[in-house]
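Sorry to interrupt, but I need a hand with the structure work. Can you supply me with one protein entry, sequence and fold together? No commentary is needed, just the two lines. Leave the record below and I will have a look.
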Amino acid sequence: MNIQNFSDFCDALLDCGFSMGGGSAKGIYAIIPYSWTEQDLVDSPVKWHTGDPGTDPWQWRMRVLEERDDIAYAKVFFRTSGYITREWYPYFYAVRRNGQSLEDAYESGTISHTAKRIYDIISQNGTAAYHEIKRLGGFHREENSSFERAVVDLQMGMFITICGRAQKTNKYGMGYGWDSTVFTTVEDFWASRGFTLPDHDPDESYERIRARILELNPDADDRKIARFIRG
């Protein structure tokens, strides 16, 4: 499909089911397969980082969250950004979570103590911006690396997901600086959109996603496919 604008992108995504989000297919699939450094070689009105909400893919990551109820966006593939539609999300969720709660994952050692602290703040507050999580959790500067890693771990594990953006505010309630990413639990994200994640078998879900990847990209490597699906 020739993507000319945001509407075209959403139509293509709903048809495909999922896509890498950052302008690179990573050997799997991306609706917009070129980055801002390559876009001058492409004859398309779709250009990165122009600020135009209709034709800038960087703007689309928030537009899908703010304007639609059937698309999720987060760092879910290869520890970088990706989109998954409501139709396909339950299959990834089944594989990544394998029926485990956050407590189960923490007790088994697959989720760190830092990640649990972050998750608890988000879960207790419903939503929380990146900078608010740091403040509420009392995270110190020397914890920045482990904090950033844990936030990605939670997204990759499909425990939390991005739900919007917010500015920091000063003591007068006035916003300042760059927007901060806002997170919520995966379950709350979909519940707010009127959708309850169904239970699917993890093995059957894996094979369903794998078959879809090969429809989108017959040359996809099995090892990359496994990493893409399992996280």
